[in-house]
Amino acid sequence: METILVSVHCLTYNHEKYIAEAIESFLMQKTNFKFEILIHDDASTDRTADIIREYELQYPDLIKPIYQTENQYSKGDSFNRVNLINLNRAKGKYVAVCEGDDYWIDPYKLQKQVDFMGKNPDYCLCVHGGYIVSAAEKTVQFSNRPYKKNKTFTVEEVIEGGGGLFLTNSMLFLKEYAFDKPTFLQNAPVGDYPYAINLSLLGKVYYIDEFMSAYRVGHSGSWSATEFNNIENKKRHYIEIEKMLDSLNNYTDYRYTDAITRTKLKTQFSFLLEQRNYSEVKKGIYKEYYLALSVKRKLIIFMDQYSPFISNTLRGVKRRLNGWTSI
Known about the structure:
The longest helix has 21 residues, at 231-251. Helix 9 runs antiparallel to helix 10 (257-274) and helix 13 crosses helix 14 (308-322). This protein is α/β, with parallel strands linked by helices. It is globular, with a radius of gyration of 20 Å. It starts with a strand and ends in a 5-residue tail after the last helix. The protein is built from 14 helices and ten strands. It folds into two domains: 4-217, Spore Coat Polysaccharide Biosynthesis Protein SpsA, Chain A; 223-322, no CATH class. Strands 1, 2, 3, 4, 5, 6, 7, 8, 9 and 10 form a ten-stranded mixed sheet that branches.
């Protein structure tokens, strides 16, 4: 019997509009190895589970779902609980992540990542570029491209890159490290960012400079829409991230204090920008981060501060222009 090399790790909840596209993007993968598709439906209240069952009937040897009758995420230790339920049954040497509202766009994504990992056993995480798209129209909002060529990322770069450095659905890693749960990871408010940090501590991290996935934003069922629906939620999230970084610092015997300090300051700076507290970002400990902004970004801040009507009008024009491009 052929050995399964990759386990596709897909968590889903109320993704009836998107889950079919996610599954189709898994099924289109062209590989010279066997893989499995592990889907964990966390007691969806819409038709998500019904759609998964339709695919399960067509591909019973490939698609292996779990249909929860009670929502697991709402229980304590939600991130670790839901992930471990799915990962504990994985048979692959590698795990490839993609949530039910996202999708892959390159049919050779898995093959490219596995080829690299197989030739470079000192690496434990492989990521790639991708697009951030609007939920329904799939119009490109941003490109996620942390570097303009293939690159090995250091621990410091992963820490300072923050949660937006790599798209979650670009991650492929060694399954043996999936169950390594240091304290800073157990207490984290999110999984992908501290997970990437932990993997960078355990082995090397490689970035492939190709756009191979799409990450949806802007729909009501997304984690970010729920978590960041007001400024107080954002503030609480950033405080929890800082606590995670403090725990990381202790766990690593303060080897990365400088990187962690810079990351916390940049996080505080970003939050001040979100609050449009522009007088604060231009002085004191945040001044160097303001001066490092591009001329374009400084111009946007200037217009926000002194001509908000013009600024909002230009944002509207940009959104309409983005509508011309979709994937």
